[in-house]
From TrEMBL:
Gene Ontology molecular function: any one: transcription cis-regulatory region binding
Signal peptide feature range: none
Residues in HTH tetR-type domain copies: 18-78
UniProt keywords, alphabetically: DNA-binding, Transcription, Transcription regulation
Record-annotated DNA-binding residue ranges: 41-60
A Pfam family reported for this protein in Swiss-Prot or TrEMBL: TetR_N
Keyword match Electron transport: no
Gene3D superfamilies membership: Homeodomain-like, Tetracycline Repressor, domain 2
This protein's name: TetR/AcrR family transcriptional regulator
Amino acid sequence: MTVEQDPPAATRPGGRTARVREAVMRAAGDALAEHGFEGLDLADVARRADVGKTTVYRRWTNTTGLVADLLAHMAEESVSRSDTGSLREDLRTNARLVVRTLNDPRQGPLFKAVIAAATGDESAAEALHRFYAIRIAEWAGCVDAAIARGELPPGTDTHEVIRAVSAPLYYRVLCSGDPLDEAVADRAADAALAAALADAYAR
């Protein structure tokens, strides 16, 4: 799937193109959180964003294209990884960020809607995979730093460590429905750290 983009010359920081995209991304996120992927409608998004329907249909073509761009936008706006000098604290910060996002009254339903869309639409799945690849690569840097400091064995798969932190948190939200709080976040981070120290994530 290809999402239509304006030519580079038409895009400038703070220009109309950027303002339109920002408004549409906000409106799309609100609509997804409220109605889910099945209820997402480009005309409704255009109305919420106070943007002409023609502009939305021309640039994003369909709801899948809109969701793909929304995920790209979310990756761009995501909080950068922490750098506390301690892998335990960095992993706990990551886990707590995931918990806050999933418990947020807007972001939580939004992520659930996107994940639901990805289960039945290949293009939405590809966009979701790209989003998480970006976030995992960002946070893997704290594991790289820990290896350099001698906290972890050389050859540790940094991406697997980060995946291990968030996996039990998403399981609670999507599968078991168990409570999700900071204590759970810290336990997930500590478990991933213990496994990494035991060389469970050797490449």
